[in-house]
Write a structure and sequence with these properties.
Layout lengths: L3 H9 L3 E10 L4 E12 L5 E2 L5 H6 L3 H21 L7 E5 L2 H4 L4 H11 L7 E5 L2 H4 L2 H14 L2 E7 L7 H5 L4 E4 L1 H4 L6 H16 L3 E5 L5 H8 L4 E3 L9 H11 L1
Parallel strand pairs: 2-4, 4-5, 5-6, 6-7, 7-8, 8-9
Antiparallel strand pairs: 1-2, 1-9, 2-3
Bound molecules: guanosine-5'-monophosphate (G) (2 copies), manganese (II) ion and sodium ion (NA).
Length: 255
């Protein structure tokens, strides 16, 4: 696990970095977006993954600062990608921790970041887990409404894992469902997983939500999800999270 001191030093030395994992549009197999995932580079160049620092950062109150770096780098990357010939309509999704969601200045910070980089709000999607919604639903509702009013899309991450409440879909202005990878990894080998994913995709469609399947580790699953009418797919079988420079090359060769 990272220590608080290491995290503070990483912020100080600008060793916080986003990796980008492509999201494939299943209608035509084109990548029009990616998820930003935070990494910390040690002084020796090796990477610390979120599993080894997010809980620590939350405990010592550093998540808002780390989150601000991720938002800024994501907008910077978006502006680079949109200026290249590859992705004028490229979108990035950025994870928000519960604490960040409850920052009253969230919408104005997001608006300012978009503005600094000359981006429309539709370029950005914010991912939340249901955990972020349940502790103070009234405040969450207010923050999400402000973000929606800006034009930023809200995705419900890890959907179906843990204590999913379908009522969240009624109450909060969600526009994207990301089906948890625990369902996807059992696809085509477990009839219950097949039925659940097909059901979730159908439900999302009826609700006018986009559906993203996460954790695609086998190519065969891409076809299966296309047959189910799932909108987008993300996972190691498509590409692992990578630095911006690598994504530009990957997009170029995938075209
Ligand atoms: O990057 P990795 O695949 O190891 O991500 C592990 C977890 O860390 C993910 O579930 C994701 O929600 C979380 N995570 C990654 N990057 C960020 C980030 O920038 N902000 C927040 N709040 N969580 C992140
Ligand atoms: O919780 P969230 O969905 O934000 O986290 C995404 C996490 O999932 C990141 O840690 C990312 O590295 C990881 N991930 C992305 N694709 C795959 C995959 O195909 N298999 C597995 N096991 N993890 C994946
Ligand atoms: Mn996510
Ligand atoms: Na997820």
């Amino acid at each position: 696990l990272a220590t608080e001191l290491e995290l503070r030093a990483a912020l100080e030395d600008q060793r916080v970095q986003i990796f980008l994992q492509p999201r494939l549009d299943l209608v035509d197999g084109v990548c029009r977006g990616a998820e930003a995932l935070m990494r910390i580079r040690r002084a020796d160049g090796s990477l610390i993954l979120p599993g080894d620092f997010i809980a620590v950062a939350e405990r010592c109150g550093l998540m808002p600062r780390l989150g601000a770096v991720v938002l800024e780098q994501s907008c910077q990357a978006l502006s680079t990608l949109r200026r290249s010939s590859l992705g004028e309509d490229f979108r990035l999704s950025v994870n928000l921790s519960p604490l960040e969601l409850h920052d009253e200045a969230l919408a104005s910070r997001v608006e300012a970041a978009l503005c600094r980089h000359g981006l429309p709000a539709s370029a950005l999607e914010l991912e939340l887990t249901e955990t972020a919604l349940v502790d103070d639903p009234l405040a969450a509702e207010r923050r999400l409404s402000e973000l929606r009013a800006l034009g930023v899309a809200i995705a419900l991450d890890d959907f179906g894992a843990g204590f999913s409440g379908l009522s969240h879909l009624l109450r909060f202005p969600i526009s994207v469902l990301k089906i948890d990878r625990s369902f996807i990894e059992r696809l085509r080998s477990d009839r219950i997983a097949d039925a659940l994913v097909e059901g979730l995709v159908g439900m999302a469609q009826r609700l006018g939500l986009r559906v993203v399947a996460e954790g695609i580790e086998r190519h065969a699953l891409i076809t299966a999800l296309q047959a189910m009418d799932c909108d987008e797919a993300q996972g190691y079988a498509i590409a692992k999270p990578m630095p911006l420079e690598s994504l530009v090359g990957w997009l170029d060769s995938a075209r």
